[in-house]
Specification:
The complex is a heterodimer of chains A (about 350) and B (about 260).
Chain A (H helix, E strand, L loop, with lengths): L12 H6 L25 E10 L2 E11 L3 E6 L6 H8 L7 E6 L8 H4 L3 E4 L11 H10 L7 H7 L15 H13 L5 E5 L7 H16 L3 E6 L2 H7 L2 E6 L2 E6 L1 H6 L2 E7 L5 H7 L5 E6 L6 E6 L9 H13 L5 E7 L2 H9 L7
Parallel strand pairs in A: 3-7, 3-8, 5-6, 6-7
Antiparallel strand pairs in A: 1-2, 1-4, 8-9, 10-12, 10-13, 11-12
Helix pairs in contact in A: 4-6
Chain B lengths: L19 H18 L1 H20 L10 H31 L2 H6 L5 H29 L8 H26 L4 H18 L14 H5 L2 H13 L8 H20 L4
The chains are: A alpha/beta (about 350), B mainly alpha (about 260).
Chain lengths: ~350, ~260
Amino acid sequence: MRIRPVRHGAAGAGAEAAAPRRAGPVQPGGGAPIDSAAMGTPAVEVTDLVKRYGETTAVAGLSFTAPAGAVTALLGPNGAGKTSTVEICEGFRRADAGTVRVLGMDPVADAARLKPRVGVMLQSGGVPTGARAGEWLRLMASFHARPIAPESLLERLGLTSAARTPFRRLSGGQQQRLSLAAAVIGRPEAVFLDEPTAGLDPQARHATWDLVAELRDAGVAVLLTTHYMEEAERLADRVVIIDSGRVVADGSTSELTRARQELRFEARSGLDAEALRTALPEGTRVEVRAEGAGGRTACTVSGEDADGRIGPELVATVSTWCAANGVDPEGLRVQSRTLEDVFLELTGRELREP
Amino acid sequence: MTPTASGTSPFTPAPGAAPLHRMVAAQAGMELRVMLRNGEQLLLTMVIPVLLLVGFSTTGVLDLGSGPRVDFLTPGVLALAVLSTAFTGQAIGTGFERRYGVLKRLGATPLSRFGLLAAKTLAVLAVEALQFLVIGATAVLLGWRPAADPAGLAYCVLLVLLGTAAFSSLALLMAGTLRAEATLAAANLVYVVLLGLGGVVFATDRFPDAVQPLLQALPVTALAEGLRAVLADGAAPTLAPVLVLALWTAAGAALAARFFRWE
């Protein structure tokens, strides 16, 4: 089961989905928010990327793009190849095949020109254990020509009181936020965040999300990896679902979930799923499962047409069938699947090894 | 980019690298502060050398031959100071930086590898200057009167710089190839072994003739005895210690350049 890659331009669903989130700060001069999708060359362009470690193929022909002024999330289970992909974009690893362009440049060959323009947050570590938070951020600032004032960034991320604390004594959440601050202090054009909110408490997670949204609004290209559905759902203009080193779906959250509708209802006493299915068009799936005590049954109908939408005709057919068979369809509704439903359907439910 | 579109957000892209000298100065400052805050390193770089100097100068535990004991000991302890900072401290520090992804993270900044190396070298030289100040002052209080003339002093500076280069390249070779824990153990072991064998506090002529070529080829022996000949005995500078240190530097740097792993 594969969702075809969905490409969207400025006038497409992606721009529409992103628009409400940009309504916040008033733009001086009345200029329209940057709509990078309309701006031609994407900030990050990965084409047919392959990465092998010995016998293992971590990335197996991956392609996607990440525009400026947008958040692109690489979503996938552990071991899907997210970190390998991001680290190739960051220039830490070389691709075995395929091409990667960041701001139009090769991350390895053009490293010296690219590094000042790119911000990087590693999955963990990256700071000397004895370095103090404020000191480290000032060091990172001193590498750049026009950095953000370190103190304001510390304050923004709730680290002011920890400014004199050595890295090893910061909490996990504080360490994550410091690494995030270091990634953005040089005012980069593109930012790579590898699991930026792993292990954060809800407050810290929201602070991170707010900052990422502001980066996007300021025109920065943000590429992040996550395995949190909620994060991808809330933050990303565009979600690239990866499994076993391949893209299995690519689009805005609404595109990915809208294309996966289902019809649900409960029947007071059981119903004959096989009989219902034969009454419905070819390719429709019917699932029933016992719901609590008393013989109640939950019924899910999905997958009518090619893109998985549930049309009014199908609703009518199900209602008619229920009327003819004495079934009272309680709570009959058509709903989009959540990103998690889509994700599990695409990547399977079995546990991952790593 | 549309210049008017993004308003006054502090995150509006405005990238650019700082000038190299500013990056190197900032990084060297960070390295220096982290080194000076590290208690174990201070033990190795300051406390042990000073204790050896004071202990063996004021007691007769060691037979150091004729002449004031402090005159014999000080050059050796200065060599030990260089070994402790440029080799042991730097190997352990860099090994753990590699382990914790610090080198990797710095590799994603505009600071080049050359810049990082320059910063580390500056920080090491700054710590050495501090060590020389403390050890020198202690030695003078114990009655040390160095014999060198200006040419001899210039030769000593050359030996210290070459020794620093040799030990640094060997430190980076170790830190860039072994696990951090292995580096920690090995670097301390090398410190102790060279302290014993390298003419630091024990004169090398006490060892059997058979091992003399080996001892004379050690970088710490070249540094300690090169300094001692000039500072204690007022002898004319010789080429041998310079050659030994230059060879170690060349070999260490070539191997480190070839085998160093950043993560």
